[in-house]
Amino acid sequence: MAGPRHLYNIINQYRWRSRLTEPNYLCLLDARSQREFNDSHIITAQRIELSPAGEYLIPNPEELGYVRFCVVYDHDTDYQEKEKETGIWNEKGFAVDVREADGDTGPAWANSSLVSLDAGEGDALLHARNLEQFTRHPVLLLKGGYKHFSACYHFLKSKKTLWMPQELDTFQPYPVEILPAKLYMGNFKQASDKQIQKDLKIKALVNVSEQPVTLFAEEGKSLHVSVPDSLEADLFSSFPTISHFIDAQLDVGAVLVFSSLGISRSSTATMAYLMHSCRFSLQRAWKYLLKCKMNMRPNRGFVEQLSAWENQIYGERQKEGSPAQGRVRKGAGPAPPVAAGRAGPVAAAIAAMAWGASLAECLREWEELQDGYQGIQDNHKLYKQKLEELTKLQDGISSSITRQKKRLKELSLSLKKCKGQATPEQEASIQETQSLIKERQNVFFEMEAYLPKKNGLYLSLVLGNVNVTLLSKQAKFAYKDEYEKFKLYLTIILLIVSFSCRFLLNSRVTDAVFNFLLVWYYCTLTIRESILINNGSKIKGWWVFHHYISTFLSGVMLTWPDGLMYQMFRNQFLSFSMYQSFVQFLQYYYQSGCLYRLRALGERHNMDLTVEGFQSWMWRGLTFLLPFLFFGQFWQLYNAITLFRMIQHPECKEWQVLMCGIPFFILFLGNFFTTLRVMHQKIQNKNKDTKEN
C-alpha cells in the first residue's frame, strides 16, 4: 500500500528525464465518480470505468502485467492510524518514529503507507483486489485517498485527462520528500525553480555543488558547500555545518538539499544529516534514502567519509553517555558503543554495500527490462494477430466495394436506357436514384481512401509494389501538410537561387545546380502527388500531368551545354523562373487560407491541395490571381516562340532548343485552356443557378 509521500516520490522520480515518460513505470487509477474525476484528479491518473452491468473494466490488461507501480485511489480510503506514542505527528499526518528498532529501515512514516485491508471494502480496495490477477508487482492502495493526497500536494492536481508523450517529456519533477513537509532533496534546476519553492514552502537551501546561486534575499537562509563530485573531494569536514544548519532551519520551514544532478553529493549530505539528527546507522540511512530516491548514488569516496562520520558520531555519544542530539524523541536511549579500530572495516563494509547496492539496482533494472521485454513480445504477438485480422478485413471490404461499384455502374447504364421511355413520375424517380448512386460512389471513394490499393503505373515504376495508403486520418492530413510545406519552402529556395543566378552569378555550374534542383523538385512533387491521390486527394489530371512535363523540361535544360544558343535563352529562362516562383508563392499563400475557410464550412475535402493553376473552388475570393496566371501562361508561349525562332539560327546545333520549345508550348496550351474551361464551367453553373432562382 502507498501513503501520499510514497506516491509523491514515485511520481517525481527521474533519470535523465521524468520516469513518467516510461510506459511501464506507473499506472495510476482513479476509482471515484466521473464528476469527481472531471473536477480534479492526480496528474496522469486514468479513471476506472464501469460496465453497464456494474463490473470493473480493466484498462489494458495485457500491459498491466509489466507496470512497475500500479496505484489505485478513491476519495478517502480508510486506514488505521498509528498510536501517537510511537512518534511525533506533523501537520501532514505522518508519524515520525525515531526509535532504532531491529529490522526497521526508517522512521515510522517510512512504513506509514500500510493500509489495513480490514478497514472497509471501498471502491479502491475492491478494484485493487480485482487487478491483482493481472499484475506481477503488488497493487498499491493510496492511503487516505485523493482527499488526503490533494491536501498534502495540491500542486499535483490536474483536470487534464490525456497526457501526450511530449507533455510528459517536459514535465518538471519536484524534489523527493525525505522528512514529511520538512526536508527535500533535489537537483540544481529544481532549486532554481521559484514555483517549486512556493509549492513546497522551501525556506532554506543547502547547495552542495560548485556552482554558487543566490535564491533567497534574506541572509542565513542558504548554505553553500562548494565540493566537486570526485573521489578526492572532502565533504566530511562540512557534515557538522550541514547538519546544524538543517536542524536550525527546520524550525522555520522546509529545507531543500541539492547538488548539480541530485544523485551523489546531495544524497551524501542528506544521509549525513539523518545519521546525525535521527540516529540512523549508515546502512539504515542508505536503505531509507534509496526508497525515497531510487537512483541516488554517492561515489566511493563519499561512502568512506559517511562511514567515518558514523564512527565519529557513535564514538562521541558513547563517550558523553548522553542521548543523541537533534530531533530525537526522549527515552530513545544511548547510542550503541563502537569498538576501536572500527573505521577501517566499516568503511570497507559500507563501500562493499555501496557496490552491492549498485549491483542490486542493476539487477532490479534488469528484472524491469525483462518484464518490459516480455510485455513487448506479448504485445508484438498480439499486434501480428490483429494485423492478420486487419488484412483479411481490408481484403473483404475492398472486394465488397468493387462488386458494389460494378453493380452500380450496370444499374446506372440501365437507368439511362429506361429514361427515354419513362413517364414524368418515373423520370423523377430515375433522377433521384441516379443522385443516390452518385452519392454512394462518393461514399465508396471516402472508404477506399482508408483501404490499401494497387499503385498506379508511375508509382509502381518508382517504388515498386509498396503499399503507400495511410490508414489514419491524422497521418493523411500530416502527410498533406508536409507536402504543402515542402512546396512552400522549395518555392522560396528556387526564387532565391534563380535571382542569384540571374543577377549575381553567371556560371554554367550554378545554372546546372539550379536546373538539377528543378528536376529534383518536380520529380518529388510527382511522387508525392501520386501518394496523395492514393490517399484520397482529388487533384485534377492536368495539374498533375504538367509536373511530368516540367520535369522533362528541367532535365533538358540541365543537359543543355554552354554556348551561344544557351546564353541567348539563359536570362529569359531565369527571369521566367523568378516570376513563376513568385506566382506560386502567391498562390500557396492565398489558396491555403481559402482552403482552410472552405474546409471549416464543410465545402471542401480535408485532403484538397493547393495547385499551380486555377480550380473551381477558387472562384470565390481568388479571381484576382487570374491576371498573374494568364501573364505567366503567355510568358510560356513567348518562351516557346523564342526557342522555335532560335532553331532557324545558323549557329543552332543543339537538340535541346527544340526539346525545350515543345514542352513550353504544351505547358501554355494545357494551362491556358484548362483555366478557360474552369472559368467557362463556373460561369455556366452561375447562370444556371440564377435562372433556377
Automatic annotation (TrEMBL):
Keywords tagged on the record: Cell membrane, Endoplasmic reticulum, Membrane, Nucleus, Transmembrane, Transmembrane helix
Main location: membrane
InterPro entries: Dual-sp_phosphatase_cat-dom (IPR000340), Prot-tyrosine_phosphatase-like (IPR029021), Rhodanese-like_dom (IPR001763), Rhodanese-like_dom_sf (IPR036873), TMEM120A/B (IPR012926), TYR_PHOSPHATASE_DUAL_dom (IPR020422)
A Pfam family recorded for this sequence: TMEM120A-B
Top-rank taxon, per record: Eukaryota
One cellular-component annotation, GO: plasma membrane
Transmembrane spans: 486-505, 512-531, 543-560, 617-635, 655-676
Compartment(s): Cell membrane; Endoplasmic reticulum; Nucleus inner membrane
The keyword Transcription regulation appears for this protein: no
GO biological process: fat cell differentiation
Domain Tyrosine-protein phosphatase per the UniProt entry, residue ranges: 174-315
Coiled coil: none
Membrane topology: Multi-pass membrane protein
Similarity comment: family membership: Belongs to the TMEM120 family.
Cited PANTHER family: ION CHANNEL TACAN, TRANSMEMBRANE PROTEIN INDUCED BY TUMOR NECROSIS FACTOR ALPHA
Protein name: Tyrosine-protein phosphatase domain-containing protein
Natural source organism: Lamprotornis superbus
